[in-house]
Amino acid sequence: MNASELIAVVVASYLIGSIPFGYLTGRILRGIDIREQGSGSTGATNALRLLGRGPFFMVMALDALKGYVPVLAVWYLFGAHDLQVAAGIAVVLGHDFPIYIGFRGGRGTASSFGVCAAFALPLAVGLLAVGLFLLFTLRYMSVMSIVTVPLGAILLLLLAVFNVSDDFTYTKAIFGAFATAFVLLTHAGNIQRLIDGVEPKFDEAVDSLRQRKRPRPRTT
After folding, report:
1. Of 31, 44, 100, 157, whose Cβ has the fewest other Cβ atoms within 10 Å?
2. How far is Cα 63 from Cα 58, in angstroms, rounded to an integer?
3. Rounded-to-integer distance, Cα 176 and Cα 170, Å
4. Helix (H) or strand (E) segment spanning residue 74
5. What's the pLDDT band for 220 if we cut at 50, 70, 90?
6. pLDDT tens profile 11-29
7. pLDDT confidence band for 85 (50 / 70 / 90)
């Protein structure tokens, strides 16, 4: 890995990560800036709250692809794990602080999943299964994020410690620690609301959208 490769990978990955799919979806579908409503995030959960389930799944998939495609491309182009990690960190930074819309973005969960999928697809699939189980049993989107990303970090570290494969390096465990710190920091408010018992559930976000879409009765 040389300096020019590192700079090129970081810059390109950051610019890709900065593509604000949630923001663009809100503008295209409803003409709104989703950062000005709901949680103020451009991520999938706020898209669910403001736009509905279809946009939610679309934004989540696109944000995950932002992490998956650059990191996988780096491997095929350079074959360097360290550059993959640099790309992953840059993507998450771009998602959270997008240059295109004033550095106000999302919280990095879906993009981190995408990066993990590029590192090890079976690992990401397993984390997704755990996340969906938590979502459908507890009904909290935030719990899905604050549990699965740290869990992924622990697994990446264990895979490196036990030298399961040459593909699992300590630098990838460093990405896990970075993603965990970011997700926990950006979800600090959610964690406090969970402790206080006032965190809104997945169903409530959908119901809230339905209430806003319901036509108001005319007054005479």
Report:
1. 31
2. 9
3. 10
4. helix 53-78
5. very low
6. 999 999 999 999 999 999 9
7. very high
Pairwise CA distance, residues 206 & 26, whole Å: 16
User: How does residue 213 score in pLDDT terms, banded at 50, 70 and 90?
Assistant: low
**How far is C-alpha 208 from the chain's CA centre?**
23
Length of the chain counted residue by residue = 220
Residue that has been written with the tokens 């403001």 in this structure: 50
CA distance 59 to 45: 9
Amino acid code (one letter) for 19: I
Rounded Cα gap, residues 41 and 162, in angstroms: 38
3-state secondary structure 173-200: HHHHHHHHHHHHHHCHHHHHHHHHCCCC
b/e per residue, 63-98, with b = 16+ CB within 10 A? bbbbbbbbbbbbbeebebbbbbbbbbbbbbbbbbbb
Q: Please, are residues 108 and 88 in contact by the beta-carbon 8 Å criterion? A: no
Side-chain half-sphere exposure of 140, counting CA atoms within 13 A = 18
